[in-house]
Amino acid sequence: MSEALDLDRPELRSEPGTVESVPDEIYDTVVSAILDRALDPGTKLPEDVFCHHYGVSRTIVRVAIHRLQQDRLVELQRNKGCFVLVPDRKEAMDILGARKAIEPYVVRRLVDSASEDDLSSLQRHVDREDDAYHRNDQREALRLSGQFHLLLSSIAGNNVIQTTLLNLVCRSALVIATYSDVTACCKAHDHRRLVDLLQKRDAVAAVEQMERHLNDIERDLLQDKPAEAKPSLESVLQRYGPTARLRPLRPID
């Protein structure tokens, strides 16, 4: 199995040089930029910038935009243009819920199918995550944390799940950018613990670790903050009008 997934890896990029490949190139570029946090939710994506860069018509660009829109990565706003999607809270919960349904299956599959070379690749990837954390390179740590989950699905060898999880991890990056900051990404020690359990071929513990890991992410990102109590009119008057009590009452005309 190959080394940790790289956003420049061949399977995420089309061969340049033909007009027919441009929509795929645009799509892959936007996906990679979202995963890297180079494009944040709400960023405008003007069609003419794509047209100028790739030397193609708006019709070609719109093919890519339509695909990105279908995959819930961008949204079209009437009379305003195309923007990187800002997921609402319901969509954010649905994205994480889908990952919680899929990734434990990936882990179970890996316990049975991952080779020693595969596990070594995972170990080396986690080492890279640790290095990014120790260097306080939070953006790189976030990028690698998402790639770790993509590497798991790649090793599992189910192409449908791999494609689905790529979309979910990309959309998860938008959730993190919307509801938290760059520090709210996967913890490298969680990934290391999972790799250790895969090496031990402990399916039950490995699945539990993945479930716990995803639950922690969901809690950190989407926990409800207690609503701030609204002051009463009486407390407002006491705070802002302390001399009011000293004024004689006057009849209301």
TrEMBL record:
<keyword id="KW-0804">Transcription</keyword>
<feature type="domain" description="HTH gntR-type">
    <location>
        <begin position="20"/>
        <end position="87"/>
    </location>
</feature>
<dbReference type="InterPro" id="IPR008920">
    <property type="entry name" value="TF_FadR/GntR_C"/>
</dbReference>
<dbReference type="InterPro" id="IPR036390">
    <property type="entry name" value="WH_DNA-bd_sf"/>
</dbReference>
<dbReference type="GO" id="GO:0003677">
    <property type="term" value="F:DNA binding"/>
</dbReference>
<dbReference type="Pfam" id="PF00392">
    <property type="entry name" value="GntR"/>
</dbReference>
<dbReference type="InterPro" id="IPR000524">
    <property type="entry name" value="Tscrpt_reg_HTH_GntR"/>
</dbReference>
<keyword id="KW-0238">DNA-binding</keyword>
<dbReference type="Pfam" id="PF07729">
    <property type="entry name" value="FCD"/>
</dbReference>
<protein>
    <submittedName>
        <fullName>DNA-binding transcriptional regulator, GntR family</fullName>
    </submittedName>
</protein>
<keyword id="KW-0805">Transcription regulation</keyword>
<dbReference type="InterPro" id="IPR036388">
    <property type="entry name" value="WH-like_DNA-bd_sf"/>
</dbReference>
<dbReference type="InterPro" id="IPR011711">
    <property type="entry name" value="GntR_C"/>
</dbReference>
<dbReference type="GO" id="GO:0003700">
    <property type="term" value="F:DNA-binding transcription factor activity"/>
</dbReference>
